[in-house]
Amino acid sequence: MKLIFRECVIDDLVTLRELSCKTYSDTFEHMNTPSNMKAYLEQAYDIGKLRGELSNINSTFYFLYNDEKLSGYLKLNEHKAQTDIYDPQSLEIERIYVTKEFQGRGLGSVLMNKAIDIANIQEKSYIWLGVWEKNDKAILFYKKNGFYVIGKHSFFMGEEEQTDFIMRKDLILSN
Ligand SMILES: CC(C)(COP(=O)(O)OP(=O)(O)OC[C@H]1O[C@@H](n2cnc3c(N)ncnc32)[C@H](O)[C@@H]1OP(=O)(O)O)[C@@H](O)C(=O)NCCC(=O)NCCS
Fold first, then answer.
1. Is the dihedral of CA 105, 77, 168, 132 positive or negative?
2. Per-residue pLDDT of the chain (175 residues; tens, 9 = 90+)
3. Does residue 142 carry a catalytic annotation?
């Protein structure tokens, strides 16, 4: 298993959109109506919106390749690019996805460790993320990685208002 991270550039736009839509659908389509899913995918992964996110200096996307096969991705936000909190001392993991075929083989931990490494290099005090309250699998994964719930916020999946838990992991700063 040869694992390589690559920071995404603007030329990755189409691949990023395909991977984002596929991983999101695979994760959530069985728990949401087709019309709400369609509306969400069109809005969240609109090509112009993604282009703006790729160009935002406060957002970074990474692709993870496993034996040269694209197998997951990460989106990290700082400062004003964050979807909540906006604390310069924090790093947000907005997206962390492993493709269906590679889940349960440790790649989620590899993505998480990448986020932690970057947060440590940037001398952040904590990492936070939002996770749908019904995404039990991801919540367990985050708890296992030292995250705890600090609040909630709502978001719209198409026409349906849903609740995200906000979870935080404290980082131990050396020196
Ligand atoms: C959540 C996700 C990133 C985890 O990645 P993964 O590659 O499946 O998880 P890993 O194989 O790296 O597991 C890491 C650890 O978490 C544990 N874990 C993972 N899923 C778990 C679950 N459902 N229940 C309990 N523990 C779980 C594993 O047992 C493992 O523990 P270990 O290190 O002690 O063996 C991945 O399943 C995924 O992409 N899911 C769909 C997308 C998603 O929900 N993203 C989050 C949106 S907020």
1. negative
2. 899 999 999 999 999 999 999 999 999 999 999 999 999 999 999 999 999 999 999 999 999 999 999 999 999 999 999 999 999 999 999 999 999 999 999 999 999 999 999 999 999 999 999 999 999 999 999 999 999 999 999 999 888 999 999 999 999 866 5
3. yes
Strands (E) located in 24-157: 59-66, 69-77, 90-98, 126-132, 148-157
Ligand 1 within 6 A of CB of 97: yes
User: Is pTM, for the whole model, over 0.85?
Assistant: yes
DSSP letter at 67 equals T
* Top mutation candidate among 128, 141, 166, 168 for ligand 1, by most atoms within 8 Å of CB: 141
Contact present, 12 and 61 (Cβ < 8 Å): yes
